[in-house]
Design a protein that fits this description.
- By secondary structure, the protein is an all-alpha fold.
- The radius of gyration is 21 Å and the shape is globular.
Length: 380
């Protein structure tokens, strides 16, 4: 199975959703009516988890074919090392940049930065090792939006097991393969409820909490990407009519938005990421259906731009902190100096497209740098 341009399109949508939600941190005030809806942009992370599940299947199959004579444990650690080497250099560059900016702004200029970094040595160490997803005190306060990498790396660690289970089901009991995301959803819901009870509500899976970020909360979405990969071996998307996939995408998408806007009760945020994952799944089915049809597809400027954003999405994720946290914080400071005021929704809307473009350009250069570093670390 060849790699699909659909994956880049989905990642492109995901990174723009993330910029949308992070851009509003210092521009939109709490009374802004659009703020709750814009916050839904955080579900862009679900798009990345879904695509990761799908695309890692290519990497794992290529690796296991080329290392078939090696023990499985050796292949597993080689797989994790490759994932680490892909993520770590850019992460370290931006983390050091954040540290320098924190020291410069806070200690020298006495100006609070957009992101105040936790400088505890153990906090920094857990982030460098990408195990901060296991520590409530360090999961999201060393690197802007850094919870995503901590969660993603734990999903990578779980990937070979999930892949192996789905592969066996695919060849032996394919109908039961479809139940894996549901089983993972039920497992996660029970696990997070149990943790909440055991900690006497000290840990509760509210939005943007440790348990919301915890990797099991995103396993169902991640597994949907693996599921679609195996389904595509039998051309599932080509057999699934657009009149089915598109309505299911819209229904699950609107359901997810509706749930997101509801009051946070009854462990709602143990379910929302999976519903978002289901929406992305049906979007993927519809897009692959179009892509595999004869003729030119995704050739419009907007589609090509989204695909370019998808290809540079990790670089854009790394550098968007300078625009969304530091840039918008500085802009807010200058706009409100001497008790100045501004129309937050208008300013947000006017700056959204330029922000995406600036992040895109910076992300391209970051990807070039990371590609050069990757060649040095893994010349073969």
């Amino acid at each position: 199975m060849k790699k699909l341009n659909t994956l880049n399109l989905i990642k492109g949508i995901g990174i723009i959703m993330i910029i949308m939600v992070h851009n509003r941190h210092f521009l939109m005030q709490d009374m802004s009516g659009l703020r709750p809806l814009i916050n839904f942009g955080q579900m862009g992370c679900q798009l990345f988890f879904f695509v990761s599940g799908f695309s890692l299947c290519f990497s794992w199959e290529h690796m296991t074919c080329s290392t078939s004579s090696k023990p499985v444990v050796s292949t597993y650690f080689q797989f994790l090392l490759r994932r680490y080497l892909r993520l770590a250099p850019g992460f370290l560059i931006i983390m050091i940049s954040n540290l320098v900016l924190n020291i410069l702004l806070m200690d020298i200029l006495n100006f609070p930065p957009g992101f105040i970094m936790n400088k505890e040595p153990f906090a920094i160490l857990t982030n460098i090792l990408f195990i901060h997803g296991l520590f409530p005190d360090y999961i999201n306060n060393v690197f802007p939006g850094g919870w995503y990498l901590g969660t993603a790396f734990l999903l990578y660690a779980a990937f070979p097991l999930l892949y192996g289970i789905m592969k066996k089901l695919f060849y032996r009991l394919p109908i039961f393969m479809n139940a894996v995301p549901i089983v993972l959803l039920l497992f996660n819901h029970c696990l997070l409820r149990w943790i909440t009870v055991m900690t006497k509500n000290a840990l509760y899976p509210s939005n943007n909490s440790f348990l919301y970020f915890f990797f099991t909360n995103h396993l169902p979405c991640f597994s949907l990407g693996i599921l679609l990969y195996f389904q595509e071996k039998k051309n599932f998307s080509a057999k699934c009519p657009i009149l089915i996939s598109v309505p299911l995408f819209l229904v699950s998408g609107f359901l997810c938005i509706g749930m997101f806007l509801m009051p946070d009760t009854h462990y709602l945020f143990t379910i929302i990421p999976s519903v978002a994952g289901m929406s992305v799944y049906w979007l993927g089915v519809a897009l692959i259906h179009f892509e595999k049809k004869p003729g030119k597809h995704f050739s419009s400027f907007f589609a090509r731009f989204l695909a370019e954003c998808g290809q540079s999405s990790y670089g854009m994720y790394l550098v968007h902190t300078f625009v969304c946290w530091y840039g918008m914080k500085a802009l807010n400071y200058f706009l409100t100096i001497n008790d100045g005021a501004y129309n937050d929704i208008l300013v947000y809307m006017l700056l959204l497209v330029p922000s995406v473009f600036v992040v895109f350009v910076l992300g391209l250069y970051m990807e070039k740098l990371l590609f050069w570093i990757d060649k040095k670390l893994r010349p073969t």
